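Tokens as discussed.
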């Protein structure tokens, strides 16, 4: 659940049903990071802070990498995940952020988010939870996450380079 940092509002990540919803939050002195989910898609739009830098989200292999995040201070975020869920490695982030990602059942809950600027997230998935194949997108990405049972399937990604990727999971039969 979101906690208010001193000057910045917290980001809340909630998953309802089989979707991951990222709600938009305004940071008082900086521009807000807007995460919008429509249907079964997670769209991460580029947002400039008044300080600097734009988050770039790239997905390679089974990892979702968010690169290029420099902020005005220094801090490291540790994302720990147990079981077959989502593993997130250490990131050096320039502001004060403490983000704990917990997964219960087939839901991903993200609690305690204190952000003063940007974060770098690397999501790795193992086993039958979330599978995401390579998505090369020239300008934008359309990532469709579908969850069946305890699985999140990424199917049919069309992007500006006119490439389509399909990932089908055969665990629920």
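Sequence:
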């Amino acid at each position: 659940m979101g906690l208010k940092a001193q000057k910045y509002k917290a980001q809340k990540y909630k998953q309802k049903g089989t979707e991951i919803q990222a709600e938009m939050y305004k940071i008082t002195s900086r521009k807000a990071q807007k995460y919008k989910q429509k249907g079964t898609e997670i769209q991460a739009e580029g947002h400039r802070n008044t300080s600097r830098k734009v988050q770039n989200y790239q997905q390679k292999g089974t990892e979702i990498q968010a690169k290029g995040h420099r902020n005005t201070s220094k801090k490291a975020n540790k994302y720990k995940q147990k079981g077959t869920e989502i593993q997130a490695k250490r990131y050096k982030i320039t502001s004060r952020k403490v983000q704990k990602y917990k997964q219960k059942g087939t839901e991903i809950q993200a609690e305690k988010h204190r952000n003063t600027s940007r974060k770098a997230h690397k999501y790795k998935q193992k086993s039958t939870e979330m599978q995401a194949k390579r998505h090369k997108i020239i300008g934008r990405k359309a990532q469709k996450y579908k969850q069946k049972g305890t699985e999140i399937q990424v199917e049919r990604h069309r992007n500006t380079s006119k490439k389509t990727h399909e990932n089908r999971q055969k665990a629920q039969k």
